């Protein structure tokens, strides 16, 4: 071991090697940066020798020097590689929170790129030649699509809830049904957000039953908001009772200083119920019923970027826009560009909506999925003899804490490799291919659901499986 350690070339000697110059040019680093990286690579090898874990070439040989620079190159690649990378989602879960939720439409992506690459009129009125407001860019579209008098955008729906409660109900009471005190991902609770906002929570009813008279009894001069939280991430079934939105609106409309606010969560701008999918309320319907304000997410059923959208009465939205917190939770130009690109597809009607991947994936027919699945299996078996395959009926999930009770009929591919377990197949597809591929594992079979795989990604998925 001592002989090996003495045989490791000094760093200044390795700096004179031609491979050092090659790495300098290829990686656009300065000498100091690359030298520090070289020292780290040599230290890593020295540590392996001391621990008795070095299984490479013998120090002092040309092969050893090659291995030093190979390790150096790998370290550099790792350091300067993106940690957020493209993933092929073959799980069938459309709004997969761990995989980034909604995919953006082409028009939204193109608008983001153009906005990011150039200066823009983010807060500038071109006709007047004076400062403008970033709220204006999507407000007109949101008003048209939802029927609201006004709208604004913040960085997510939790921020929207917080801003509404802080600006409109600080030190005042907010009435909420106990059955709607939900917890969303990451242990964020409506009750906790309300506490942080300074509003005073008034719980009414029970976990499974709340009546209109529960709200009526709780109303007093300290009441600022009657709030309804749409329980989009869970369902209570059985002996239950909740108060309809229309009834709560009717109650608050009789009161001069009490606002009705509904947190719609998932943000459906499209009526999925017409296609037999779930029972999510459409934002426009709630606005037309007379809700004072609503809030909802941008990256769930809407199919856009992460954002929190607040829509409703102009006098209330104006108060929110002027509140100091509005700047704290505001969105950047790229989020606005992505949202504008998405909303324009909605404004175009049925044909435009089909451009939004989330909508397209949700509405994919079983016949379409069956045809794609059969064709994929045929191509796989023609190119490889290493798999046993079968196609069977299953269900896809909406995901993202949305429509938890909805099971979308689908056709999936079950794969069994001749020499690899399902776990090994899954790991190799995640770690040895670019883009990484994520599927499902069920009873030692690797399951692929093409509902969430685009036509362009099918080829990449097929090639990866053939290479196994």
Short structural summary:
This protein has helices spanning 2-7, 11-15, 18-27, 31-51, 62-79, 106-117, 136-146, 157-169, 190-197, 212-218, 245-253, 283-289, 314-322, 325-328, 333-347, 350-353, 357-363, 366-383, 422-431, 455-467; strands at residues 87-89, 124-125, 130-131, 150-154, 173-177, 183-184, 188-189, 200-204, 223-229, 259-265, 293-297, 308-312, 387-396, 408-417, 436-438, 440-442, 445-449.
Question: Can you give a write-up of this model?
Answer:
It is a single chain. With 468 residues, this protein is α/β, with parallel strands linked by helices. Helix content is 44%, strand content 17%. It has helices at 2-7, 11-15, 18-27, 31-51, 62-79, 106-117, 136-146, 157-169, 190-197, 212-218, 245-253, 283-289, 314-322, 325-328, 333-347, 350-353, 357-363, 366-383, 422-431, 455-467, and strands at residues 87-89, 124-125, 130-131, 150-154, 173-177, 183-184, 188-189, 200-204, 223-229, 259-265, 293-297, 308-312, 387-396, 408-417, 436-438, 440-442, 445-449. It has a seven-stranded mixed beta sheet with strand order 4-12-11-10-9-5-8, sandwiched between helices. The longest helix has 21 residues, at 31-51. The protein is globular and about 90 Å long. The two termini are 39 Å apart. The model has no long low-confidence stretch (mean pLDDT 93).
